[in-house]
Structure prediction request, 652 residues.
Amino acid sequence: MPERLTGYPASPGAVTGPAARLGEPPSLPDTKPAVTDPAAELARARDALATVAEELQRRAEGKPKDVADVLFTQSVMAKDPGLDQAVQAAISAGTPAPWAIREELAGYQDALRAAGGYLAERVADLDDIGDRALAVLLDAPMPGLPDPGHPYVLVAGDLSPADTATLDPAKVLAIVTERGGPTSHTVILARSLGLPAIVACPAAKSIVDGQVLAVDAVAGTVTVDPSADEIARLQAGEQARVAALSTTSGPGRTLDGHPVKLLLNVGAEGAGFEPVAAVDAEGVGLFRTEFLFLDAETAPGVEEQEAVYRRLFEGFAGRPVVVRTLDAGADKPLKFVAFDDEPNPALGVRGYRTATKFPELLGAQLTAIARAAAATGAQVQVMAPMVATAVEARRFVTAAHEHGIASAGVMIEVPAAALRARELLAVSDFVSIGTNDLSQYTFAADRMLGALGELLDPWQPALLQLVALVAHAGAETGKPVGICGEAAADPVLAQVFAGMGVTSLSMAPPAVAAVRAGLRTRTLAECRDAAERVLTATTPEQARAVLG
Amino acid sequence: MAQQRVIVGSRSGLHARPAVLVAEAAARQPVPVSIGRPGGPVLNAASTLALMTLGAKAGDEVVLSAEGDEGEAAVAAVAALVEADLDDPGQPSRPDKPEQPSHA
Prediction:
């Protein structure tokens, strides 16, 4: 009887394939052996570091220049003559190779931390070198993404942003993690790549490399060593699901034609804006502009920003594009402005709050957006992140109007803003609910913390109640209320939101087809009924059960 | 001993990429080349890690030194790189910039 594991279905799809585990960083053995032959021990240490350098260089081949640069620099650090000397001295003094490498790297890490800024970020690179060298020396699995030479189901405790950044969607069939919640990096990445994913599956700990897994990320189950029948059934179900998606196209609407706009969440888009512009969607509901700022050494100029905005707007000519102004802060630091150290960055000066500290950044961005909009004739709207009060909303909307941007709104991510949605809507042209942060702040639960995943479930009745409140305020004021968090990508929840009176849903491009199909399965009256009934639920499970 | 004070020219300082280039140049010299901040500890200029731990930013002064007959030429060769702007956009490494085609 094959073993069946359950977890949270985070990104829909179904696939069968061999498991490959993410390599966990090795740890030093409890006991430190005596060094009997220092010359041989040094040779071992040098071999290990050379192996690491070669592996990093190999990984750099064929990568885009920015990724290759980072990997190449890291390979140079592994071969560093200063490190070599220090390791040699430590081994001569009787320290075994694994400890010598770890301790000498730690010395450099302290110095880099002291240097601060950009250099402090290299601390993680040295950690990685140490982990890899230890894996070689201790004959442990290499940490990081596996490379078994064939497509695989990636199994991990959790994925770090660095893991997700280097994940190759051509090699990974699906993702299964032990930890992680509905709004974790893993989920956002999997949805943006259209990969099936199951998170919060603690039993995945028992999965070993090479085991065949049937991943059903619609039901949230992983079957280990499935039978031929099961594989066939899963395939048939997936084919039916994909076929159902392709039967619908065009604007979002319910079975009886009530419109709910289907919009896209767009970011840096390494492949350019053409692929997202070609998606069958009605516009952009969230253009994240952080990428223009986060790695920049100096503040990007108006012309530089305008050029990027123009390329996006041209791709979406005739369709609405909502640009979110810079969302930075102590949690997403910038190199060219100093944020104060904050004990709680998520509750600190971030999002729109930074505009009071660095007004010139927002001014330059609004100028660039207005110019690009004028040049392309796109229906450009702007919105500010992390707005808490109607006073902040009015300030932002006034500034945007003064810059010549006709439609300006704010994001509802803070419970205070949701509770006073009517007052915020009175001074804004629209609002858009960021369900990820709204969950985090409503439940006082860090959205990156997998252990709190249950609280961050988008079906939590408290979150749904806040969404309903905002949607109701939208209906009263006659102004649009959109949703641009991960919750908008749930095809069933989409029906609930439609019933509440939400006017647009913005999501990662691969999610659009399923949400469109989901909306078309019910009439507006049925959606309204469901929207009322989910609010009577006590748990997310009960809320889900409303729509079966 | 040959010694030379140099101003760091790379706009982002002696961080990863410029540090790699300077260390490579130092390693190519026939004699060991040292680097340090004025009055600070003297480090091996052929070590990328040592260069990075200096934390030298654009405009900061560093001291290069080397022993022996070939010392002067060695110091001059490394100094040329320390002074140069190794972050020059002529060698693109910034895909987030609009002049790069990656977002076109």
Observations:
- Residues 37 and 62 of chain B are 5 Å apart (CA to CA).
